[in-house]
């Protein structure tokens, strides 16, 4: 499998949805809260009609914010180009834009499992959450899914409008069902960059 690293840029936003700004806070020398930085979202195109914007990452369960250590660590992670869907021992806050559903074989929902506990919140549009058991839930703006190491996929419920979801992924122990550990995986023919993101092999 050839390695393909995502390229994040403000100009890579595919969707017509509103541009986003990320605001990070901090403290001045008197301990008062200040804005450390404000930057527009940077997007990477992962597949046809699928784009990621990594808002922030942490690399340990309890990150230190002293001396802006968490910020410099996040910047190093992004500069490395090796961030998968999940960041081992840490967290990822990621915004995902999903294009309108089409009959295009390359735009099929991607069934996958990550070794993580995920909070997924629909910000724009309507999205279907599909499970490998065949169960489906329609999620509308403001609805939240708590993914617990399950095989799942996301599908835009509209054939005309884009949808946007924000995810917070927390690295977790492998799920054990009936004595079998469930590994991170992705089903079907998908771009290498998606396989690598799920496996964390970038």
Description:
The protein is mainly β and 202 residues long. Helices cover 10% and strands 41% of the residues. The chain contains 2 helices and 15 strands. It has helices at residues 69-80, 192-199, and strands at residues 21-27, 33-40, 44-47, 50-58, 91-98, 112-113, 116-124, 127-131, 136-139, 144-148, 152-156, 163-171, 175-177, 180-182, 185-186. The strands form 5 sheets. The protein has a 6-stranded antiparallel β-sheet with strand order 3-4-5-12-7-10. Strand 13 (175-177) and strand 14 form a beta hairpin. It starts with 20 loop residues before the first strand and ends with a helix. The model has no long low-confidence stretch (mean pLDDT 91).
Round the Cα radius of gyration to an integer and report it.
17 Å
N-C termini distance: 11 Å
Strand tally: 15
Secondary-structure content class:
mainly beta
Lateral strand order in the biggest sheet: 3-4-5-12-7-10
Helix content: under 10%
Average pLDDT: 91
Can you tag this structure with a few keywords?
single chain, six-stranded antiparallel sheet, mainly beta, 202 residues
Kindly summarize this structure in a few lines.
The chain is mainly beta and 202 residues long. The protein contains 2 helices and 15 strands.
Secondary structure blueprint with pairings:
Elements: E1 21-27, E2 33-40, E3 44-47, E4 50-58, H1 69-80, E5 91-98, E6 112-113, E7 116-124, E8 127-131, E9 136-139, E10 144-148, E11 152-156, E12 163-171, E13 175-177, E14 180-182, E15 185-186, H2 192-199
Antiparallel strand pairs: 1-2, 3-4, 4-5, 5-12, 6-15, 7-10, 7-12, 8-9, 8-11, 13-14
